[in-house]
From TrEMBL:
One Pfam family this sequence matches: MFS_1
Keyword field contains Transport: yes
Record key words, sorted: Membrane, Transmembrane, Transmembrane helix, Transport
Protein name: MFS transporter
The Major facilitator superfamily (MFS) profile domain, residue ranges: 20-403
Mode of membrane association: Multi-pass membrane protein
Organism: Flagellimonas yonaguniensis
Location(s), subcellular: Membrane
Length: 406
């Protein structure tokens, strides 16, 4: 199947490159905002919609699954059909989906809209990551890509903090109204200042795409890295799924406190990433193995110490250390996977993002559903399950010799 370029598509004007770059940075945090901003509202949603905790937690899982799956295909589709129009359509669908959620009185339409949001945000994410490669070159490209990772990390930090106050002063629907308003502003900016950035429309060749996927699937260390990255981010999702219920229902604190707790977890994740960058020149395998061993020790202390010390401070302290550790491991291994296949960066990037978030959604929801954490011990056991899986990969499946480029 051969595609033809849209000759009538609006191209990005040279005078608007700086503005379009800023707009892209404003869109990058959308995935973090969508997953974290309503976390403090989950207990209230369960009460007002007369649903169980697990039923409300599925709204996050459905988003992550669709967000993961769409990235498998979005990169190759946009290389053939362009990025600009798909981005505009995705923003419109995202705005409408938030409006529907805010007006919903049952979970069924919310489930459907969360799946639609995963598709829309997945397309926007792939489009805007490609933007920096399309528009910028050399050191400037490296500079912007580095900033992009930091901007992406900020969203999970500020989102639950904002969401806690929205829940406290308004209601659970307020978070989705804010998301719709933010996306509407982005849509206007995109219409006025952005445009198509793809240098050349590529033919959509299924055989070539399948061949690239085959190469990735036959590279064991790459696959282990994708799995490990997904499990690390899944550890973060465990707190997103259960943290608000523990803080609000188990400990009796208001949603604002749950928002602050999630804010601390986001800071831990960000610090773990910075620590990974600071130690980037250290031997790859030893630092990851030390990190996961320390992680397991912290989790065991979290569980055992609950008999003599269990309150909001102990919960946040131990969870902070756990998130710091997985943030460190994720930063190292995800960076390795991104750079593993530089000649097919678009498809491999989509595969990494899709696979990692698919693993994140399945593993986090499965563990929370199995353990059903209600306190510090339950949260620690959930962390331990994820930590053991990561440890098996890092200590027993990974072989240092295979980390070298072929």
């Amino acid at each position: 199947m051969v595609t033809k370029p849209y000759t009538d598509v609006k191209r990005l004007h040279d005078d608007h490159k700086r503005k379009a770059t800023l707009i892209s940075f404003l869109m990058i945090p959308l995935s973090g905002l969508v997953t974290d901003i309503y976390a403090p509202s989950m207990p209230t949603m369960a009460s007002e919609l007369n649903q169980s905790e697990g039923a409300v937690q599925l709204t996050l899982t459905f988003f992550l699954l669709s967000y993961a799956v769409v990235q498998f295909f979005a990169g190759s589709i946009m290389d053939s059909y362009g990025r600009y129009r798909i981005t505009l359509i995705s923003l419109v669908l995202f705005i409408l989906s938030n409006v529907v959620i805010a007006l919903s009185t049952s979970l069924a339409p919310i489930y459907a809209m969360r799946i639609l949001q995963g598709v829309a945000i997945g397309c926007i994410g792939v489009s805007k990551r490609s933007f920096f490669v399309d528009v910028h070159e050399g050191d400037k490209r490296k500079h912007y890509l580095s900033i992009m990772s930091i901007v992406w990390s900020i969203a999970p930090i500020v989102a639950p903090f904002i969401g806690g106050y929205l829940q406290h002063y308004f209601n659970w629907q307020a978070s989705f109204c804010v998301l719709a308003g933010y996306a509407f502003v982005l849509l206007l900016l995109e219409l006025f200042y952005s445009g198509e950035t793809i240098p050349e429309f590529r033919p959509f060749k299924r055989k070539a795409i399948l061949k690239d996927y085959g190469i990735m699937l036959r590279t064991p260390m790459f696959i282990y890295g994708v799995i490990c990255s997904g499990l690390c981010y899944g550890t973060i999702m465990i707190f997103n799924l259960s943290g608000a219920f523990i803080v609000e229902h188990g400990m009796g604190f208001p949603p604002v406190v749950a928002g602050y707790a999630s804010l601390v977890m986001g800071i831990a994740w960000l610090l773990g990433g910075f620590l990974g960058k600071a130690l980037i020149d250290k031997p790859f395998m030893p630092k990851l193995r030390i990190a996961i061993i320390l992680e397991i020790v912290v989790i065991i202390l979290m569980i055992l110490s609950a008999t003599i010390w269990e309150n909001i401070y102990s919960l946040v302290l131990f969870a902070f250390l756990v998130h710091l550790g997985v943030g460190f491991i994720f930063n190292n291994y995800f960076a390795y996977c991104i750079g593993r296949f530089p000649k097919m960066a678009g498809i491999s990037g989509g595969f990494i993002g899709g696979s990692a978030f698919f693993i994140t959604s399945i593993s986090s929801y499965a563990l929370v559903g199995l353990v059903h954490p209600q306190d510090q011990v339950g949260l620690g056991i959930s962390y331990l399950g994820m930590g053991i899986l990561i440890m098996v990969i890092l200590l027993f499946l990974m072989k240092p010799d295979n980390l070298e480029e072929n």
